[in-house]
Amino acid sequence: MDVRNSIWFYSTALDVILVDQLTKALARSYLIPGKPIPVIPGFFDLKLEFNKGAAFGMFPNWAPLFILVGLVAIYAIVRLRRSGTGSHCLSIGLGMLLGGAIGNLVDRVVFSARGVTDFLDFHVRGLPPWPTFNIADAAIVVGAILVVVHVYVIEKRRSETEVES
Length: 165
Hints:
With 165 residues, the chain is mainly alpha-helical.
């Protein structure tokens, strides 16, 4: 395994965890639940919410299962990274997935009474509201996109090039 890609993987994960936990702490310190602060009126607010459930607040009383799922996801991401091809794209994507999973897991374990802290609220008038989310959630989505791009674009091109050779 390439050392540079391992550095990308672990430093990306660590950066996501640090930024996620710092921004959640700031949100808990400065925002009041139920009182959004408009940043871009009609589009983006800072709005403190707590989520004991899964995505979109589903299954709010299943916290022990989500902790177990988070631990399994962390294990799977690290194992997948070890078996990866060594691409920067894959390393960064998996690092974002790992950091996001750990960031939300920290909230579920340390702040189990209130759940995961969410504070980013994007909305467009006339459209259904998007659920409030956090940096860890965003990292998970972006990381998943990078992994999909790696698997379906980069690896596909690589295998087509090998077939042509």
